[in-house]
Amino acid sequence: MSQMLILAAEQENPLIPPIPELVIGLLAFVIVFGFLAKKLLPNINKVLEERREAIEGGIEKAEAAQTEAQSVLEQYKAQLAEARHEAARLRQEAQEQGAALIAEMRAEGQRQREEIVAAGHTQIEADRKAAASALRQDVGKLATDLAGKLVGESLEDHARQSRVIDRFLDELEEKAEAAR
Amino acid sequence: MSADPTQVLAFETDCHIFSGCGFPAPGLHSFLFKPLWGDGDSNLYFNKTMLLALLGSIIIVGFFWAAFRKPKVVPGKLQMVAETGYDFIRRGVVYETIGKREGEKYVPLVVSLFFFVWMMNLWSIIPVAQFPVTAIISYPLVLAVIVYVLWISLTFKRHGFVGFFKNVTGYDKSLGAVLPLAMTIEFFSNLLVRPFTHAVRLFANMFAGHTLLLLFTIASWYLLNGIGIAYAGVSFIMTIVMTAFELFIQALQAYVFVLLTCTYIQGALAEHH
């Protein structure tokens, strides 16, 4: 053990700072502070800021992409909905048109049928009338002829004037009517 | 015991138990160093702690130089480690206590203080050096005085003369009759005792830590004779345990030192209520 140091220790109070150590301590700290404060920390701060910006830029880009994707999706959905709506509208229209067409055709058919039926009726009536008048004439003539032959003289002129035949025929018709 | 002034180790290598040699207990003399250069009696000398202090500065600057000289946006391993340390002090200490807006200005000082103190503490367990530079009161005192001067000037700048007085004495009308007593205590505690406690807290921790390490280390060697070998083993295990503990204390004390620094700065900047 160093006697000198022990003697020195007895005199020294560890709380009394030796001056040279103060100076060197200050110097050592100033070296560290100088390098860190003036050069190295500003360096790293700049880079940290750049990194923060890069990360934020990336986030912003991602956000922009997401927004765009969202808007495209919405647009697409809107288009799809519009197309569906359009299709529904077209189907509805087609149905309506079809129904109208069918109704129209049905009405037309009905009309034509009625026309045909009416025409038929008219024709039948006309034919019947023609037949009736022809028959009446023929029957009258035949009857007169027959009667003339039976009587032996021509009753034609007389019959026409006396209207016998008509009366006969009317009676005949009445009988037929009653028999029916 | 020889009076060898050139002795390098903290104890004599041929001194063991049962060999008529007393236990060379560590003491104040363990914290005195023969000058490597110059004369110990004058104030012109250079010793081990100064060498370690300057070497420590160079190591810190070298480390951060390697890490931050050409920093990259995508960091390498070394830059990442340095950034983690830097960020820990910046966010974990400065922003937490002073706040981001006002604290930004003091980040370089606090970061420098932390790594400086930590490095000086670390010397305690670095082989061959094995002495915490901060166990010499001068080193913590210089740092405490820097903080003290900054605190005083900031308080003056922020609050003016009357404001300074109110800030330092913790002037608070609501205290009523106790006010004079409270002001006296606060005045002493803030203005006179603060730099002392700030420095001594660090100094005493490292001083005690080094003494403990010395005690177990010396004992391990001293007991290495006869039956003492068994006890030497226990002492050696304690040396290892205490070394690990010191590793923790060194970082903790550096953290406490800068945390107090930030608290003082925050107190100077805060509006007094």
UniProtKB/TrEMBL annotation, chain A:
HAMAP family: ATP_synth_b_bprime
UniProt-annotated location(s): Cell membrane
Keyword Transport listed: yes
Pfam family, one: ATP-synt_B
PANTHER family: ATP SYNTHASE SUBUNIT B (PTHR33445:SF1), ATP SYNTHASE SUBUNIT B', CHLOROPLASTIC (PTHR33445)
Stated name of the protein: ATP synthase subunit b
First-listed, main subcellular location of the protein, grouped into a coarse class: membrane
Automatic annotation (TrEMBL), chain B:
Membrane as UniProt keyword: yes
UniProt subcellular location: Cell membrane; Membrane
Membrane topology field: Multi-pass membrane protein
Record key words, sorted: ATP synthesis, Cell membrane, CF(0), Hydrogen ion transport, Ion transport, Membrane, Transmembrane, Transmembrane helix, Transport
Entries under InterPro entries matching the protein: ATP_synth_F0_asu, ATP_synth_F0_asu_AS, ATP_synth_F0_asu_bact/mt, F0_ATP_A_sf
Chief location bin: membrane
Gene3D superfamilies in UniProt: ATP synthase, F0 complex, subunit A
Pfam families recorded: ATP-synt_A
Residue ranges of the TM segments: 50-68, 106-126, 133-154, 174-193, 202-223
Family, similarity comment: Belongs to the ATPase A chain family.
Function per UniProt: Key component of the proton channel; it plays a direct role in the translocation of protons across the membrane.
NCBIfam families tied to this protein: ATP_synt_6_or_A
Protein name, as recorded: ATP synthase subunit a
Designated gene of the protein: atpB
